[in-house]
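In practice, a research group might receive sequence data for several interacting partners and want a quick structural hypothesis before committing to experiments. The following worked case mirrors that situation: the sequences arrive first, and a predicted assembly follows.
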Amino acid sequence: MLAPFVRGAPVEWLLDPGADPWRKTRPERLAMTGTPLVLQPTAAIRAAWTGQHIGAIDKVEIAALHNGDVLAFRLEWADGSENRDPGDTTAFSDAAAVLFPVVEGAPAISMGGPKLPVNAWYWRGDSDTQGRQVVAEGIGTSRTVDVSLVHAHGVWKDGRWRVVIARALRVQTSEPVVQLDTGKGAHFAVAVWEGGHRERGGIKAFSGAEWRSLSLAPVGGKA
Amino acid sequence: MSKRQLAMVFDLNKCLGCQTCTIACKRLWTREEGMEYMWWATVNTMPGRGTPRDWEQSGGGFRDGVAQAGRLPSNKDFGEAWEFNHEEVFFGGKGDSAYLKVKGEEPDWGPNWDEDQGAGEYPNSYYFYLPRICNHCTHPACLEACPRKAILKREEDGIVLIDEDRCRGYRFCMEACPYKKIYFNHVKKVSQKCIFCFPRIEQGVAPACARQCPGRVRFVGYKDDPDGPIWKLVEKWKVAIPLHPEFGTDPNVFYVPPLSPPRFDAEGNIDESKPRIPDEYLVSLFGPKVLESLAVLKAEMAKTRAGGKSELLDVLIAYQWKSMFGGFDKDPASIEWKKA
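A structural hypothesis for the assembly, expressed as tokens:
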């Protein structure tokens, strides 16, 4: 997938999933699959989800662009219910994330591994504009490293979510997060949680074990 | 496994259902926004459906050491923090015509909904009160269920705590706890529960629910302290037993089971052979050991009636109030408390 360069587009603008620059992108369709039951991190979760379908969202359309400083993804999927604030103890928020390997060889299916960190840019409907940057080194190890560097915004309309998740290409931090450059390639994966199906944590739909390829257009390059 | 374990014993023969423990806890810990419906300490009438509704049938815990699927209670199962029409009744000039009622939708459950209903047919009807807090289990289902390792069991005293910075509000703990003593904070979006008043414990003060109890029901202390009441009641006399031991979590709250008067037979005569509270019911709550516990209590009571002395009954009567707290008997008013 190509992330075209859009000159001078402020991040606030890109966070509008209907904004003009998104018309320059060609969304790709990703087939999503439920995370395997055996990879759920605790016995109680495996017991609760035995015989239940994991991964209610089976496809996501994804597009990406950058303005030279910030890389933004737009995820779009069909969802009959807008689950934002849980409200009830039995309800959960819809959520989405883009995952990157921080080092070569970090596996997507197991959320990285020891010394093989992966970095997620995360959005959740109950805290819409507050994105979250997460690092994991294997199943059950995810931790939030900041709630300030990832920008996000989701709009639900006519049975569809359109969610933009963005972050600066390079960020100052001692945490193992992905650092990106224009004119170069990157790898990513996608996850979506259907709150109406009680999906949260490792119970989610993801784009599979294979990383997807992304190429960031050079600054000044044509879309 | 923690090095030591703090525990409580609740003497059900003394609990009068006054809810002072419930309110002591509420005033101290769950007054913030998002915590309105929370009652970390509850007292329900048994037999009853309890709080949250039907918690005993909600799954979770372990069977033969294997984690079991659990159910999440809903807001309505807990009972929402209703608002009442106080304005209308007390200040609206309608004191003669309006009656006190819940504003909005009429609730069908609450945290003490089936109070004093109990079971059985007159003249053999019966009930007793069952106070509950988090059991600070030795094998905590909540801790093991959490995929984020956000729940910890303190090495020094076995208190089970949720790290709200790590918690993301997934509520796998709430599903897994078979006692349903974990609550979801709707504002902070994290799970919360009884903390055994650890800031008080660290200053030598007993938890608020225990210290405020006017009935001298709640004993506190380390399980392995031979001078404290817990060891005497749990280990030495074996009269205090856990609730639903079959849930497999090894709770550290223990109960002295309720004795009851004999039943009346069909002719209205006293039938000494059958207690008013059926043994089967108590066994369903506390397991078969409840019968041994009741036998010990009866034997000790007979002993004192015959003029003898009973260390067990002396402990249970708690002549010295402070003896109930296993050394955690400092007056909280004597301490300068600082908010973290």
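Before designing any experiment, note the following. Chain A touches chain B through 25 residues (CB under 8 Å). The helical segments of chain A are 11-14, 43-49.
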